[in-house]
Amino acid sequence: MDFMDKKLLEKFDDKNAFIKVTSSAPGVEGSSKAALNRKGNQKFNEGDIENARRIFMTTNYSDGLSRVGDHYNTKARPIEALRMFWMAHDKKKADPLIERVAWLLQDIMNEEQEVKND
């Protein structure tokens, strides 16, 4: 089942848009970061994905972010998955989603051009 369709882009509003993210988590170091990552892993394993995501974003834990992205991808949330993969610097998982978005945008542009030509 292909969950990347035109209706996907129609779902966006300000709360669902991409936000700027940084690649470092200032103020979270050493043992505090490790403890937070353990708590994030616990939350993830308990099924509390959103709280795990918040923790992983705070600590910039790439493995955790990538696992959250995998979860979003299985739940037909490809834009959120792409965001997690991008933050995790997981190019192998991000690239196929980027390609799908590019094809979708190209299809939309082609349809708009056809409408103008009619």
Helix and strand topology:
Blueprint: H1 6-10, H2 30-45, H3 49-59, H4 62-74, H5 78-87, H6 91-117
Helix pairs in contact: 2-3, 3-4, 4-5, 5-6
Word description of this protein:
There is one protein chain. By secondary structure, this protein is an all-alpha fold. It has one domain: Tetratricopeptide repeat domain (Serine Threonine Protein Phosphatase 5, Tetratricopeptide repeat, Alpha Horseshoe). The protein has helices at residues 6-10, 30-45, 49-59, 62-74, 78-87, 91-117. The radius of gyration is 17 Å and the shape is elongated. The model is unreliable at 12-23 (pLDDT under 50).
Give a short synopsis of this structure.
The chain is mostly helical and 118 residues long. The chain is built from six helices and no strands.
